Amino acid sequence: MKKLLIITSLSLGVALTSCKKADFADNYADPSKISVTSVEKQYAGFLQSNADYILPNYWNYFVVLRTTTNHYTQAVGFINSDKQYVPGEAGISGNWNSYYAFLAQYKEMQKVYNALSAGDQAEKRIFLITATIYLYDYTQKMVDLHGAIPFSKASALSTNGGDYLSSLPAYDDAATVYTKMLDDLKGFADELGTITVSALAQNALSTQDFVNKGSIAKWKAYCNSLRLRMLTRVSGVAAMKTRAADEISAILGNSAKYPVVAANTDNIQIKVTDLNSNLNSKGFQDGLASSGWNSNIASKAMIDHMNTNVDPRLRVMFEAGSNAGGVYNGLDQMANPATQDSLFNKALTIANYNRSTFSHNQYFPGVLINAAEVSFLKAEYYANAGNAASAKTAYEDGIKQSIEFYYGVRALSNNSLAPAAAPFTTAEVTAYLAKPGIDFSLATTKAAQVGLIANQKWIHFNVIQSLENWAEVRRLKAPSLAFKVDAASSQTLPPTRWIYPSSESVYNTANYNTVKANDNLTTKLFWDVN
């Protein structure tokens, strides 16, 4: 086994089942012999280390998302099969190992930073702040998938000088991790408003930062938008309800101090600019639309909602089946597999995600947080606070931003397999907002208002922000989706969390045993209280 693989695996308490503990000691590189590095170099490596889980790429879409979260939200239609609600080991372990390799890169950067003089730490402070914001975005997703995770003590193999036994990490409670991240992000939000970045540090940041291109303004917006997402996620938890309400009010009440992503030009995303670089979406094609795997089928639930309300996004997000006469049909999840297969593979009447907008678009950006998501978060807060007018404005802004976003990414595409979509018009957007199933003013209760917002989040997130989509569907219990019961499995319906990879029980046994009782597919996350 290669040394890097060993470091990555054990630093998280994750190992491949074919490894032996002796391998770690024998193959671990002596820290004193590693080439001299710097905060800037570690920063670039850190950002790069999870790029394939941000940019649409093969492994994440085909192995991780295809049969898990994309199914659980009916962001796609799928042909029913036995054990379809049990997430596969390859997807779980792949995502787990990717996160902990990413965390290991962060810890290595932190180690280099901590060894600097006080003066140099002040000079490099902006790298640590922005890296931590980026880390917390991915960490939030990992907590939302599993619950408790190794975090505070994880990825410390290098820091501990290669002592693998002392590096086996304990699990941190999910609510504790959220609290830690929210505390730090609030501190960063204040600090970024007053921080002084030298010309030298700014130049280095602009060179290494391929997320926000060194823009402190965009990092501020990223920080506060991430806070808004996480505070909303825990807003129903009794112990966090007051904090969530107070901090969201402070963010939305002072845009000068706490800016958020407010327009698509502000979106936090990894842009693809050079297909010959490592930052591209070439793997999206095989990941989402692999021939014969039916992983980009339109679901009946989503297509019916879009058809009924004449959604302007329909023609840019989907392609009608080749034998459907231009009609958009989705796959019914309550149908039996033979009927589903016939409709999709023989009759060819089921729609697909638009290839030229999505899977074959090699310039599709890696989405982190965008304007539509933030507007829907605002709308939910205002609705729950009883401010229907502000909720309506934010809700409609989110819809408009979502429409603009998907037509915008189609404009980036270098593919023309699907016919060009006619541009949307102001008139059709206005008509859409007035549809009975969309019109916010017709929702007279908070529950009805939040239901409308949830539907729009679901359409907007679809397969692009798949993990956020599943988290919000679980939290809000909306939209209401019907699933066929899988009588062939003890897991008869979609799960409420992912289990841990099997390597945890094998190689991090003592720590795993502290969370073993909750390691099943039915234990809810701490924020899942509805």
Summarize the model shown.
With 530 residues, this protein is mainly alpha-helical. It contains 22 helices and six strands. The strands form three sheets. Strands 1-2 form a two-stranded antiparallel sheet. Strands 3-6 form a two-stranded antiparallel sheet. Strands 4-5 form a two-stranded antiparallel sheet.
Write the layout of secondary structure elements.
Layout: H1 3-11, H2 21-27, H3 39-49, H4 58-65, H5 69-72, H6 89-114, H7 118-146, E1 149-150, E2 171-172, H8 174-192, H9 199-208, H10 216-233, H11 241-252, E3 268-270, H12 284-289, H13 300-308, H14 314-317, E4 318-319, H15 337-346, E5 352-353, E6 366-369, H16 371-384, H17 388-412, H18 426-433, H19 446-461, H20 466-476, H21 502-507, H22 509-513
Antiparallel strand pairs: 1-2, 3-6, 4-5
CATH fold call of the largest domain: Serine Threonine Protein Phosphatase 5, Tetratricopeptide repeat
* Percent of residues in beta strands: under 5%
Q: Care to count the β-strands?
A: 6
Oligomer: single chain
Which strand order do you get reading across the main beta sheet? 1-2
Overall CATH class of the largest domain: Mainly Alpha
Q: What's the rounded overall pLDDT mean?
A: 92
Q: What about the largest sheet? A: 2 strands, antiparallel
Q: Helical residue percent?
A: 40-55%
Rg from alpha-carbon coordinates? 23 Å
State the separation between the terminal residues, measured CA to CA. Answer: 46 Å
Shape: globular
Main structural class: mainly alpha
Could you name the ranges where pLDDT drops below 50 across 5 or more consecutive residues? 1-34
In the CATH hierarchy, what is the architecture of the largest domain at level 2?
Answer: Alpha Horseshoe
